[in-house]
From TrEMBL:
This is Glycerol operon regulatory protein. The keyword Cytoplasm does not apply. NCBIfam families: pcaR_pcaU (TIGR02431). Coiled coil: none annotated. Residues 16-83, 295-355 form the HTH iclR-type domain.
Length: 550
């Protein structure tokens, strides 16, 4: 079978070739941890160089990929495809809080996994921060025989599914590379499945990697169907399999019972309305706007994936066409292609997304930090304004630089990531302080000595408080030679999905470069546009993944 076509019974004439090829490129990028040269993509996919160039150009125009020199790089906005699956299946939203509570109660990592199709894919993680901690990410795929949830899911397999698993026991590129050989756990899988069927729970005794142990239970819906599994994961330095079972199983049973009650409960009367489609995807740009390298059928096919989401878990063809603005025939061919590749399942006249959508780079992108998300946008900002740009977060009453892109000048500001400055005397710090609730801001500044760092530094607490209030309303801060003589900087906030200020961006320059008024007029629009792009990526990446700020 061709590596570009993995599934089912859709006639070749019904598939959309550009969509098949575009998804092949995305899979190869995901397998390479998010970056690969265009030449390597040609070799890996077997596609012509001109085809790869057009696919990369289309994905870049859609915001899913960046082309950096000769490399294609996955961009955070691609996570909107995985978000569509996660929000449509509702498991992270409904059961994530219960899993988080179990992790807090046991002080162990907890995972939620779903079957895909003879493997196991993670949809929620509640890890513990330790020297030896869980490294699996949302979207990661494991062979069923290598983890505790796999034995639970296999209890419901038909004979044909078992036969498929036996055939699949050779190495499969879809599975994440593991330290053990690919056959590890296969010989004992059937007996472990039988034991899981009898007990109602299963264990993983170092099958994934040495030292890692887990216990899992299935979560069933109102019809008795296994929907997912919840696992408690620990290390042999903390528990044996027996002690983990004794410690975790009672709490795990309670959590699973509560999860099943949540799934069985009727939808509340005030349930939220179906969420809106991402605006840029609801109407893919026509070719005349995007250029000759734009493959419209690829963009349309990816837009079909975003037709699904909260309140839109299963849709008929007509609803998909209406949601995307596509002709019914176009939507139908895209759905059949996605079904052919395993990204969509069909039951009677209804279509739904499958967990395989998460293989399109979600795991890699979910591990990005906020500075990694911001850096490409800072690079573009510096190229635009020809002055250095930075990102910082608040640490106590100081700022800490977490990303910086310098400009090349004879006289420039020499600051590196990790550098700290007093927040009260910097544009970044004032934006961050202005974004805090009043009581928290007062607590951070209580007793703080406002030392004069230059003859311009504001050292009056009352005056600083008034400045912070005005900055909060204006949405930016300009600091003129208060940190260092001759240094002028302008900063704006970066907000998360809930509207909280989590970081700040600034442009800094020597005061001789621009007057304060010129800095506002020339830099503020570009700085705000950059912050908006960072926020858009952060909102996509942080919807279900925990994005670290450093």
């Amino acid at each position: 079978m061709s590596p570009l076509c993995t599934a089912t019974t859709t006639p070749p004439g019904e598939t959309v070739g550009p969509l098949v090829r575009g998804l092949a490129v995305l899979r190869e990028l995901a397998a390479a941890d998010g970056r690969r040269s265009l030449s390597d993509l040609v070799r890996a996919t077997g596609l012509a160089r001109s085809t790869v160039d057009r696919v990369a150009g289309t994905l870049a125009h859609s915001g899913y990929v960046r082309v950096e020199g000769r490399d294609a790089v996955l961009a955070p906005r691609l996570m909107e495809l995985g978000n569509a699956y996660l929000s449509s299946c509702r498991l992270p939203d409904l059961l994530g809080p219960a899993a988080d509570g179990l992790a807090d109660g046991l002080d162990e990592s907890v995972s939620i996994a779903v079957p895909d199709p003879d493997g196991v894919r993670f949809v929620h993680q509640a890890p513990r921060r330790r020297a030896m901690s869980l490294t699996f990410r949302i979207g990661d795929l494991l062979p069923a025989e290598r983890c505790a949830p796999g034995a639970l899911f296999a209890t419901g397999w038909s004979e044909s599914e078992w036969e498929h698993w036996r055939h699949r026991r050779t190495p499969d590129a879809r599975f994440r590379a593991l330290p053990h050989g690919d056959g590890e756990g296969a010989e004992s899988f059937a007996p472990r499945t039988a034991a899981a069927r009898e007990r109602g729970w299963s264990v993983d005794d170092q099958l994934i990697e040495p030292g890692l142990i887990a216990i899992a239970m299935p979560v069933r819906d109102a019809t008795g169907r296994q929907v997912c599994a919840i696992s408690v994961v620990s290390h042999t330095s903390r528990h044996s399999v027996r002690s983990l079972r004794e410690r975790a199983l009672p709490r795990l049973r309670e959590t699973v019972a509560a999860a099943q009650d949540i799934l069985a409960a009727p939808a509340p009367q005030d349930a939220p309305r179906p969420e809106a489609l991402p605006p840029a995807l609801s109407a893919p740009a026509p070719k005349q706007e995007a250029g000759v390298r734009f493959v419209e059928s690829l963009a349309r096919g990816l837009a079909v994936l975003t037709a699904f989401g909260a309140g839109r878990a299963q849709l008929p063809l007509t609803a998909v066409a209406e949601a995307t603005g596509l002709a019914r025939a176009t939507a139908r061919r895209a759905l059949l292609t996605l079904r052919h590749l395993g990204y969509v399942a069909q039951e009677d006249t209804l279509f739904r997304l499958t967990p395989r959508v998460l293989e399109l780079g979600f795991a890699h992108l979910s591990g990005l930090t906020l500075p990694e998300i911001a850096r490409p946008h800072l690079v573009e900002l510096v190229e635009r304004v020809h002055d250095s740009a930075s990102m910082a977060v608040l640490t106590g009453d100081e700022i800490q630089y977490v990303a910086r892109v310098p400009t090349v000048r004879v006289m420039s500001v020499d600051i590196t990531p990790g550098t700290r400055f007093p927040a009260y005397a910097t544009s970044l710090g004032r934006v961050l302080l202005a974004g805090l609730p009043g009581e928290e801001r007062a607590a951070r500044l209580a007793g703080k000595e406002l030392r004069p760092l230059t003859r311009h530094t504001v050292t009056s607490a009352d005056r600083l408080a008034g400045l912070l209030d005005r900055i909060g309303h204006a949405g930016y801060a300009l600091v003129d030679e208060e940190l260092e003589e001759g240094l002028r900087s302008l900063a704006v906030p970066v907000r998360d999905r809930k509207g909280h200020v989590v970081a700040a961006l600034n442009v800094s320059m020597h005061a001789s470069r621009r007057t304060a008024e010129n800095a506002r007029r020339e830099l503020l629009p570009a700085l705000r546009e950059t912050a908006a792009r960072v926020e858009a990526d952060l909102h996509a990446a942080g919807r279900y993944a925990r994005i670290r700020t450093v």
